[in-house]
Design goal:
2-enoyl-CoA Hydratase, Chain A, domain 1; 6-stranded mixed sheet; 21 strands
Amino acid sequence: MIAALMLASGFWGYKLGHGSKAAVKEVSDRSQVDLSLMWRVWDMLDEKYLVKEDIKPQQMIWGAIRGMTASLNDPYTAFLPPQENKETKEELNGAFEGVGIQLGYKDDILSVVAPLSGMPAEAAGIKAGDYILHIKDEKKGIDVDTTDMSLPEAVEIIRGEEGTSVVLTIMHQGESQPREIAITRGTIVIKSVELEWLGEDKTVAEIRLTRFGGRTEAEWEEAVDEIVKKSDLKGIILDLRNNPGGYLQGAVRYAGEFLEKNQVVVKQVDGQGKIETYSVTDKGKLLTVPLVVLVNQGSASSSEILAGSLKDHQRAKLVGEKTFGKGTIQEALDLGEGAGLHVTTAKWLLPSGQWVNESQGIEPDVTVSLDDEQEGDEQLEKAMEVLLNK
């Protein structure tokens, strides 16, 4: 049985090479495909390959399926063997061992979508938008460039046991020379919603929403219930910085906390051009509270849907930097025996009709770039100013 779950996340997929230009006979549908070539290659490898113990049929089948998905030239459509599928689910559910970064592709280069708050990668100086050029792990015997590396391969290499180290060669945006950053891995337990009270009189609520995962709903409800009890509440800052996305349904759900019933949150367009509209279905608890949303280049996918819908309906001002730009939707399919398939099934549009993808991130209403040389959080300070002057 195949089980499906929709994702709108910047995390999944393969980095694809361009392959050979050798002339081959193109076929238009699978009824014309001759699979005998694949089996001839298999037989030749069985017969001629030097290291016989490296011929592992299950690995070869998985490799063939990976090649099938790679031929689509879509970095977010990928086959996941059982271990990779297990790790992917663990990450969405919020607990695993590693360095604490979400990965994607920018300009066809392996990139950091967002470092997870309070995790080893952030502490070591990894930033949203960093290019990852090389990975080295002496204990694993790995010393490789990331060119043409698939996303699951990168995740597998960078992850590891708590206390072990990995060295990433990264290029910060705006810099001309790469640098090596050593990171000691830890246990990554991700709290997806955090509430903090700001201002001298603690009357502004900052909700930091760091992902849309399996634990988010209960944590969100707990935070909102605390906010509605505040009799002297002046406003809310919804912090979506470095939120790489996750479940599409979460974006619709949390937008509905601030938007009126029946307002459109996102439109989904499939390969046949069919449009499915997702609107607010329930009455939210924070419909009239003044609201500002913080975004940056680490805000991707579902967080872009949430921020963009609030902006389109003029429910909130956006403060910060242009978002990542990831505008496609994947279904996560369980194939049995532990394997999985993430396949791009649609693109999403904001209520305005804008397709937020690649260079077309969402522009904030108030642009504030963080300066590493200055102390404090200028973006948060500006959000407070915009909120209290509304």
